[in-house]
Amino acid sequence: MKRRKEVTLRDIADELQLTVHTVSKALRGLPGMSERTRADIFETARRMGYRTKEQELSLWYERIPKLTTASRRFVFLLTENTPFYRLQMDGLQDRLQELGHSVSTSFLSSRITGRGELEDWIANSDLLYADGVVIPPAIPDEIESLLLDIPLPKVLINYPPPLAHVDSVIWDVEQAIHQSVRHFVSMGHKRILYIGDTDTFRGFRLRWSAFCAAMRGAGLTVDPEEHLTSPAQSSSEWERQLTERLLESDRTAILCAVDSYLNPLIYFLQARGKSIPNDYSLIGLENMASPLFPHISRPSLLVREAGRKAAERLLWRIANPDEPFEHIRLSGGFLEGNSVRRLV
């Protein structure tokens, strides 16, 4: 691989079999290509070590050190080893390594339920010897609140709770929901079924409120009783509710707002002889492309990019301890697949 200063637009274009003009437009944020192509160009440029002059200046303006004489070690807390968390870890690790630092994972047991157990876990780990900590999403509120009291520089990959004194980075699910509803409406769909969870996590609650706002903005009404917004007690109960709210209604489109619900939904439809998009149009809020349905239409959730930005925020916080806390939302484009049918 060439050194960073030697990498050119031509190198990136050749790698992707694109024109130099297309690569240049993508890196300058100009239109003229699909969101998938733009994402591929940025990822390839990053992997090859290419930075534009504007990116170099941005690091300087934001006071994020590019080089350091002391290598710092950070910790990424995990409750599960899943692709969702590994995606965040990949972004975090890549960015820290680029800037001369390292990150390790520390597993937080789901059996920890209170302050005493958490303090014991911290005492038996090397967490307090780290230079900073990254707290991921989907941690119970009480445990998250205790973690936010750890006396270390920290970044929360989540929407921050009220009154939290912490920097945060998150992919913008509210924007993603608005993009999804807008796409459905542009394709002629008005009877949209929302499938999600409005209770478990802050991000889930924000998705539902964004759906209601987007529907109102399109001149459409929302009756919560007509949607699936709570986890069912059993799979049979969930299927009963889905039958009632989808198969026995005049819905034409489904917005699956929680990625873990997508596979059960597709299996449910296939078992009843229904297909996407002939019978129902579908948009899913997937953290990554689904192996079962890789061409689903979906908003681009910048999960990996959130890890990269969290790395920058940690270094920025260490360099600027007295600056106000910042809450960053990363908004991606909309990836139009083949799962939404245009109504006549």
UniProtKB/TrEMBL annotation:
<dbReference type="Pfam" id="PF13377">
    <property type="entry name" value="Peripla_BP_3"/>
</dbReference>
<keyword id="KW-0238">DNA-binding</keyword>
<dbReference type="GO" id="GO:0003700">
    <property type="term" value="F:DNA-binding transcription factor activity"/>
</dbReference>
<feature type="domain" description="HTH lacI-type">
    <location>
        <begin position="7"/>
        <end position="51"/>
    </location>
</feature>
<dbReference type="GO" id="GO:0000976">
    <property type="term" value="F:transcription cis-regulatory region binding"/>
</dbReference>
<keyword id="KW-0804">Transcription</keyword>
<protein>
    <submittedName>
        <fullName>LacI family DNA-binding transcriptional regulator</fullName>
    </submittedName>
</protein>
<dbReference type="InterPro" id="IPR028082">
    <property type="entry name" value="Peripla_BP_I"/>
</dbReference>
<keyword id="KW-0805">Transcription regulation</keyword>
<dbReference type="InterPro" id="IPR010982">
    <property type="entry name" value="Lambda_DNA-bd_dom_sf"/>
</dbReference>
<keyword id="KW-0678">Repressor</keyword>
<dbReference type="InterPro" id="IPR000843">
    <property type="entry name" value="HTH_LacI"/>
</dbReference>
<dbReference type="InterPro" id="IPR046335">
    <property type="entry name" value="LacI/GalR-like_sensor"/>
</dbReference>
